[in-house]
Design a protein that fits this description.
7-stranded antiparallel beta sheet; elongated; single chain; 7 strands; alpha+beta; Alpha-D-Glucose-1,6-Bisphosphate, Chain A, domain 4
Length: 176
C-alpha cells in the first residue's frame, strides 16, 4: 500500500509540474507561409478574394469528396461557405477585404477557430507578387491544447504551402 501511495503522489506531482510548464507556452500560435508569383496583383487578388475561385488552387475545394455550399453573393454580407469533407463540417467566412489582403475565419466543428489572412504585396522584381498566408490559432489553457500548439506548424504548414504553390502554378499558367 505504501508503494501505491508513493506512486500516486509522484504521478500527481509530475502532472502538476507538466501543467505548470505548459502554462508558460503561448496561447496563440501563428503559422506563416509565403510564395512569390510572377503575375499582376489583380490576377492574384481575384483568385484569393473570391471563395468560388478557390476551386482553381485550394486542394480542399478541388477535392471530389468535398461538398461545398456558397453563400448568396447578393445578400450584401461578406461571403462564406460551408464544406462537408471526410466527416468534418468546415465553415469559412470572409471577415475583411481590402486591396492588399483577405481575412477569413476557418471554423471546424470540435476544433479551435483559425484566424487567417492572405496578404498580397508587390515585390518589385520581374513583376513579382509575394503572397503570404498567415494563420493564427488561439489555444485554450488546457495542458493538452498547449502541448498540441508545439506541433501546429508541422501539421498545418505544409497544407498552406501546398495551397500557395497551387495558386502560383494556376496564376502563372493563366497569366495572359
Amino acid at each position: 500500500m505504501r508503494y501505491i501511495k508513493a506512486f500516486l503522489i509522484g504521478l500527481i506531482g509530475l502532472f502538476i509540474v507538466i501543467t505548470l510548464l505548459l502554462l508558460l507556452l503561448p496561447s496563440e500560435v501563428k503559422v506563416s507561409r509565403a510564395v512569390v508569383i510572377t503575375a499582376a496583383t489583380g490576377k492574384v487578388y481575384t483568385q484569393v478574394a473570391n471563395l468560388k475561385n478557390w476551386k482553381n488552387w485550394e486542394p480542399l475545394f478541388a477535392s471530389d469528396s468535398a461538398i461545398i455550399h456558397f453563400s448568396d453573393s447578393t445578400s450584401g454580407k461578406l461571403p462564406f461557405c460551408d464544406i462537408s469533407y471526410r466527416d468534418k463540417q468546415i465553415h469559412i467566412s470572409i471577415t475583411g477585404l481590402d486591396s492588399a489582403s483577405v481575412k477569413f475565419l476557418l471554423q471546424v466543428k470540435g476544433e479551435d477557430d483559425i484566424f487567417n489572412e492572405i496578404d498580397i504585396v508587390p515585390v518589385g522584381v520581374n513583376n513579382g507578387i509575394q503572397v503570404e498566408w498567415k494563420a493564427l490559432t488561439k489555444l485554450k489553457w488546457y495542458p493538452w491544447e498547449k502541448f498540441y500548439g508545439i506541433f501546429i506548424d508541422g501539421i498545418t504548414g505544409s497544407d498552406y504551402e501546398d495551397a500557395l504553390n497551387h495558386l502560383k502554378v494556376f496564376v502563372e499558367k493563366n497569366n495572359n
